Amino acid sequence: MTMGKTITIKTMLLLMLSIVAITLILVITISLHRHIKLQNNFSKTSFNHEVSHHFKIINQELEDTEQALIRLQGYARSFFTKDYQFNTTLAFLKKAMIENLRFNTHQYSASLSLDSELAQYYFNQPNYR
User: Fold this and answer.
1) Residues near 84 by Cβ (< 8 Å), separated by ≥ 6?
2) Is the pTM here over 0.70, yes or no?
């Protein structure tokens, strides 16, 4: 028998195993690539959502600050146009501060906007420093 031109079972088995191994490597590589691409897209989407959410919050805070500034400018105009007495002015300032802090979502020193008794009770401090 001539062995040079015939394919043995051992050679066919090795050839088949090589083809299966190459196919598996390609399938695993393509699957990993798709999985990584999907994870990157998910991360970008999540990141974009978070950035958008924080951007909206910052814009809202800027709008609230602008409104507070407009209110405070109105208070300042009323001080310059009217003749106030000290007690009236202090009462008006307390009311204006309470009103201005009410519209803000950030934590400010509440002892500034409370009357003396409540500020002393909650913060053990007078109503203004």
Assistant:
1) 92
2) no
Report CA torsion sign: 27, 29, 30, 36. positive
Residue among 119, 69, 96 nearest 110 (CA):
119
DSSP letters spanning 2-47: --SSSPPHHHHHHHHHHHHHHHHHHHHHHHHHHHHHHHHHHHHHHH
**Residues 97 and 115 sit within 8 Å (Cβ to Cβ):** no
CA dihedral 103, 111, 87, 91 (to 10 degrees): 20
Q: How many residues does the chain have?
A: 129
Give 70-95 as a 3 state SS string.
Answer: HHHHHHHHHHHHCCCCHHHHHHHHHH
Residue tagged 């204006």 (tokens): 96
Per-residue pLDDT of the chain (129 residues; tens, 9 = 90+): 445 567 788 999 999 999 999 999 999 999 999 999 999 998 888 888 899 999 999 998 888 888 878 877 777 777 666 666 666 776 777 777 777 666 665 545 544 555 667 666 666 666 554
